[in-house]
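To assess whether ligand presence alters the predicted conformation, the chain was also submitted together with glutamic acid. Input:
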Amino acid sequence: MCGIIGYTGKKNVVKVLIDGLTRLEYRGYDSSGIALIKDGKMSVLKKKGKLAVLKEELAKHPISGTTGIGHTRWATHGAPNDVNAHPHLSTGGKIAVVHNGIIENYRALKEELQKKGYKFASETDTEVIVHLVNEYYDGDLLHAVQKTIKRLHGSYAIIVIHQDEEHRIVGARKDSPLILGVKGKECFFASDVPAILEHTKEVIFLENGEIADVSPDGYKIFGPNGKRAVNKPVMINWDISQAEKGGYSHFMLKEIFEQPAILKDIFSKRIVKNEIYFEELCIKPDEFKKITSIAIVACGTAYHAGLTGKYLIESIARVPVWADQASEFRYRDPLVDKNTLLFFGRAHFLRQDVPF
Ligand code: GLU
């Protein structure tokens, strides 16, 4: 999964963005880029390859700004190259957007926008977002983003800037993580905590469907219904090394060695007085007895955990279990019936306040 960072404040924006993206490198990516506003003018720099390539380019063609957004991309639509790298700009270059996720109805939106005369520079699904924001923009970036996300199907964490509103960043998320970091008049957006931890420990985890509007007056968060939401910042107790590799030379080693502590932590909340305890599970014991098959639907590591789960569950429950790739499962017509129990695994997201 790729990375997002955004910043408005008095610090050196380029440094905040590049340092933030460096902290997110572990997520994997194929290209990177930043867009900045200075004195009402947008500049953008994006390159295929590692952040080192972007840094070299920055050394040759320095840019600066007071507000900026940055991205490491993991291509889903369009080859990894300089043009498809984020940020994407509106025609005329006043608006810039970065996006994590997939816009599933991008073809229909692209056709609609092309009929209106919009020209597309990239092959990405993301580019429809910036043209939609442009289409709806009437002098208020928040309104334009609110209208835009109503048109999007799929998953997204986006942050958007407009050169006519120099110190403002609007971010929104659905099914892709996005957090807001606050520190006095400074505000940060990021896809994960390590990106901003050296600047602030006060973090707001945006909920699905929420929009955050950051300006020199502070930040405001709105729920999917457009009403103000009250999300209190949580204090993150990790230091950067905890949030990153935890002293190991590779993330894989860190994840392997963390397993005993993490499992203990997870299980301790689920075993009460020697009984297995799932407070939020509403399946009754007699319903469990009717289950004739179990599907574990997940991706990546969670899918591999599902393969292990198959062995464990089958050996204890004596019910057939299969593990399935979520990306295949959702587009198939899977053989499930009312007696199939489905487990949906999700990617691990560093968040301490959400129970497993
Ligand atoms: N779907 C977008 C693209 O291909 C975003 C990919 C990502 O999450 O990095 O550009």
